[in-house]
Amino acid sequence: MLADLGLLYCALFWGLSFPAMKILLNVYPSCWLLFIRFLSGAFLVYIFFHGRINKFFKRDLKGGIIIGTLLSIALISQTIGMNYISGGRSAFLSAIYVLLVPLIIWAFKKIFPGYITLFAACLCIAGMFFLTSGDESFNFDLNLNIGDILTIICACVFACQIIMINKFTKGHDPVTLCFIAFIIVALLTLIYSVIFERKFFIDYTSINELIFTIIFVTFGCYMLQIISQKYAEPSHAVIIMSLESVFGLLGGIIFLNETINFKSGLGCALIFFSVLISELKGIAKK
User: How far apart are CA 161 and CA 21, in angstroms?
Assistant: First the structure.
């Protein structure tokens, strides 16, 4: 239950952070912002948990590097992809990881996730389609461009990252894994920024949004995700984290005066029911 609440916290703050991220992305280059977020997040992790990090650093180095590298690839490919497609389409294609996680586990570990889990994942994907595809029409353009391909790569890599978190947290310290992963993301996004963006600065007009994003969205959410996944199955965890899109819509309504239409409401309902089915399955099993 605590693990599920931790993942729910992640979904809540990832979703509600969309207005702050929109403000920040109008000021900072994308990967430079990622570098600031994850370097600052690593600094906070070390301040509060340096004793644990120093104790387990060598043992957990491999797992942290793998998790951080996968997360970096996912974030960078998603960021580049968003230059070619709409935000809604990016959100929908990124959410395919919800279905990919149980399928990858089934393919490589020969562990069948169960028909209920697969049904909940499909229901969640359908909800994401209705929630993110924009207007009232129910059409979705199947012609793929470079942005679509990069975003699908992001979903695949993010699914692998979630599975790797589950693998390495079983016998390792999640806090140390989080610290190493943050350092790797900061390093790789800095390299990308130096090569492609070449624009480095701090804008103090948006400092409140930056502090909120660093403390609650980066440090708080990614730390809780890794800790919570130590106790939650990946197929179950991704369905709870998919509520991010629902909270994102809620944040847009509250902070940006956006409106909700029938299709968006239907999408929210489907995602909510997919989470409910997943939770009830766990309770029934107990």
Answer: 23
Asked if 64 and 244 count as a contact pair (C-beta separation under 8 A), the reply is: no
Cβ pair 125, 63 in contact under 8 A: no
Question: What would the pLDDT profile of 228-259 be if each residue is shown by its tens digit?
Answer: 888 888 877 887 887 777 777 777 777 767 66
Whole-model pTM: value is 0.82
Cα 160 from Cα 100, distance rounded (Å): 9
Structure tokens at 54: 């120093």
Neighbours of 90 (CB within 10 A): 22
Query: Helices then strands (H, E): number in the chain?
Result: 13, 0
- As a dihedral over the C-alpha atoms of residue 260, residue 261, residue 264, residue 270, rounded to 10 degrees, the angle is 110
Burial class (CB in 10 A: 0-12, 13-18, 19+), 270: buried
The structure tokens 């793998």 sit at 66
- For residue 87, which of 41, 131, 36 has the smallest C-alpha distance? 131
Q: Nearest 5°: CA angle at 214, between 91 and 125?
A: 20
Q: Which residues are within 8 A (CB) of 70 and not within 5 positions of it... i.e. 6 or more apart?
A: 157, 158, 160, 161, 164
Residue 170 φ then ψ, to 5°:
-65, -40
Distance CA 109, CA 163 (A): 11
Q: How far is CA 27 from CA 95, 197, 205, 259, in A?
A: 26, 13, 9, 25
Is residue 136's pLDDT more than 60?
no
Distance between CA atoms of 231 and 46, rounded to whole angstroms?
Answer: 23
